[in-house]
Amino acid sequence: MKKTLFFVALATVMGFNNAQAVDWDWKGDVRYRYQSQIQEDADHSRDRHRLRVRFGMNAWINEELSAGLRLATGNEDDPISRNQTLTHHFGGKNIMLDEAYINYHPMMFCGDVNLLLGKRATKSTLFVEDDLLWDGDLTLEGITLQYGKDIKGKQKSGFGAIAGWYSINESKSENDPYFVSLQGAYKGSASDLKYDLGVGYHDFVHYYTDYDMNIVEFFGSIGGKVSGTPWKLYGMYAFNTASQDDNIFIDDSERDAYMVGVKLGKAKKPGQVEGSAEYVHIESDAVAAEFTDSDRNGGGTNCEGFKLNAKYQLVQNMTLGVTYFNFNDITGPDKDLTNHLLQADVVVKF
Q1: Average pLDDT score over residue span 234-260
Q2: Helix, strand, or coil here: 315?
Q3: DSSP assignment, residue 128?
Q4: CA angle, residues 285, 131, 292, in degrees to nearest 5
Q5: Of the candidates 104, 29, 107, which has an alpha carbon nearest to the alpha carbon of residue 67?
Q6: Whether the Cβ atoms of residue 234 and residue 195 lie closer than 8 Å to each other
Q7: What are the residue boundaries of the structural domains of the chain, listed by start?
Q8: In sequence order, what are the residues at sequence separation of 6 or more whose Cβ sits closer than 8 angstroms to the Cβ of residue 156?
Q9: Strands (DSSP E) along the chain, which ranges?
Q10: Distances (CA, A) of 245 to 209, 210, 241
Q11: For 230, phi and psi rounded to 5 degrees?
């Protein structure tokens, strides 16, 4: 009863009080993390205990209209992390608007087309293989036209295409930064194998003064089962095609980024285990430094190394995980110093 009252109140706030919601889909997760970080020349490690909390809902208002909202911990000045460190003498933690969007999916297109307006998780907005370009916590803000995704943001089988416009900052200037994305992808199967292939183009406009980016990406994966154990091989390649003549700070020799990885198992039920390993190489001018994964090498670009992860489902909806990062700078005075990062997670989903 309390849950029902809560969502009725939430719907009223969002303007759904005159709508008949056919279906409510709500979910959330709480993650407790111990994190230890050290560089080879450091005297001691930096050890932190951190929380991430996310809670939201999606309301299917009618067969052509839905909307979503999610709240999360984090800092409004950090777009790629929803973590809150346990500090400041037990002070309260920030809660922010993490997602807020309208999804119009006209029935004349049989539910294959979505028009998204607002702020939504990148993985639900674009075709994303992994975090080479976009951190997993990033939520894009703008307008997206999707073909080949369901209303939850999952890619359907067959061909898909995405076109989007996203505002990076607004400051009353005629040169406010934004970027435009165009993507095409195909998801299919052959015999017992499943695969997906995709290509994308991301045009950053007025990103910084005298510094724009035009990123081309290629991504794909293939997977199946061996003796009942799921496996998946995946990879991504990105290249900044912006002209050095128009971008005086771009180094022609520092434009490439790539990732290759393998995943075994699937921790969906109690007692199940999964693990993954990946190698990543990101040159200085290859991708947008402020939006790529925040955990590799302290975040940003100009880094290379590997990431190892293992996860175990202890009980239903609760997983234990450990992740190890081993990265160093590609160029610069610290290129021979390895940055080690260890994360131990307890995640509960509901």
Answers
A1: 83
A2: strand
A3: -
A4: 40
A5: 104
A6: no
A7: 29-349
A8: 112, 148, 149, 150, 187
A9: 23-39, 46-62, 65-73, 84-85, 95-104, 113-121, 139-147, 158-167, 178-190, 193-208, 211-226, 229-240, 256-265, 273-282, 303-315, 318-329, 339-349
A10: 14, 10, 12
A11: -65, 145
Q: CA of 4: how far to CAs of 12, 18, 42, 270, in Å?
A: 12, 17, 52, 29
Cβ(237)–Cβ(255) under 8 Å? no
Q: What is the pLDDT of residues 17-55, one digit of tens each?
A: 555 556 888 999 999 999 999 988 888 999 999 999 999
Q: Which two tokens stand for residue 188?
A: 């299919």
Residue 316 · residue 270 · CB < 8 Å: yes
Tokens of 309: 């992860």
DSSP letters along 257-309, please? EEEEEEEEE---STT-EEEEEEEEEE-TTTS-TTTS-SSGGGSSSSEEEEEEE
- State the sign of the Cα–Cα–Cα–Cα dihedral 88, 90, 92, 95: positive
Cα distance between residue 86 and residue 90, in whole Å:
7
Locus of tokens 């400051």: 171
Burial of 213 (0-12, 13-18, 19+ CB in 10 A): buried
Residue 43 is classified by DSSP as S
Confirm whether pTM is higher than 0.70: yes
Lowest model confidence (mean pLDDT) among 191-200, 232-241, 243-252 = 243-252
**Which of 204, 198, 233 lies closest to 218, judged by CA?**
198
CATH topology of domain 29-349: Porin (2.40.160)
